[in-house]
Amino acid sequence: MFKVGYFYTDCLVPMVGNNPYATTEENAAELSINAEVYSLPSRKLVALQLRSIFIKYKSKPFCEKLLSWIKSSNLARVIVLSSSHSYHCNDLQLRSTPFRYLLTPSMQRSVQNKIKSLNWEEMEKSQCVPGIEDSEFCVRIPGGGITKALYEESCSREIPVAILLKFVSEGDNIPDALGLVEYLNEWLQIIKPCVDAPTVSALPWKIPSSWRFLFGSGLPPALF
């Protein structure tokens, strides 16, 4: 995918850094900021990459601005890749697949049959106030950031949105990222499985060059 611009907002903590997808020394010095837009016209695909956290009390204005942009851009559908804290899982969720999905009503009308054919599990509703027996049940996504707010606002605005998420723990989340994009690929078939090796693990994903520095560059020899 190619960077085509950025999503201007004052809701995210300002950030600037080197090109996280550098492939050569020449493009390594290109600057990246906190919210950038990438495009792949051949697949009619646009991606918004967020790289910093929200400023306090700014997540709701961000959702409103994002959904307004989606509406004005006439995007056919929106897919949000997210996660939720695994330590909030109930017994049933712990015994099943760690992946879940949510569809807004307008998205259900167009893709429900396809999703059902994949045998995916929909995100379960749980008590809105945990521990209170007579509490109403609602969708909860602890640790999911703006995911729930985006989902609820999209429902009220009749925007076709699908949420794909995985229950995760803090630490090395590279396997979680790969697992989530493979989960997405089951549906969209962005990368077609090889005929000789149709398993999901055979898909030729490209790893961002910045992931080499996820845990730092090691201890300097001068310490010893």
Low-confidence stretches: none
The DSSP helix count reads 6
State the helicity in percent bands. 25-40%
Cα-atom radius of gyration: 19 Å
Please tell me what the overall shape is.
globular
Give the strand content.
15-25%
Give the class from helix and strand content and strand pairing. alpha+beta
Largest sheet: 3 strands, antiparallel
The count of DSSP E runs of length 2 or more, i.e. the number of strands, is 10
Helix-strand pattern: EEHEEEHEHEHEEHEH
- Return the average pLDDT rounded to an integer: 89
Distance between the termini: 43 Å
The largest sheet has its strands arranged as: 1-4-5
Briefly characterize the structure.
With 224 residues, the chain is an alpha+beta fold. The chain contains six helices and ten strands; from the N terminus they run ββαβββαβαβαββαβα. A three-stranded antiparallel beta sheet has the order 1-4-5, with no helix packed on it. Strands 6-10-7 form a three-stranded mixed beta sheet, with helices on both faces.
Overview of this protein structure:
The protein has 224 residues and is α+β, with helices and mostly antiparallel strands. 28% of the residues lie in helices and 22% in strands. The protein has six helices and ten strands. The protein has helices at residues 25-28, 59-73, 91-95, 105-117, 147-157, 174-188; strands spanning 2-6, 16-18, 31-33, 35-40, 45-50, 78-85, 99-103, 125-127, 137-139, 161-168. The strands form four sheets. Strands 1-4-5 form a three-stranded antiparallel β-sheet, with no helix packed on it. The chain has a three-stranded mixed β-sheet with strand order 6-10-7, sandwiched between helices. A two-stranded antiparallel sheet has the order 2-3. β4 (35-40) and β5 form a beta hairpin. α2 crosses α5. It starts with a strand and ends in a 36-residue tail after the last helix. 16% of the residues are buried. The mean pLDDT is 89.
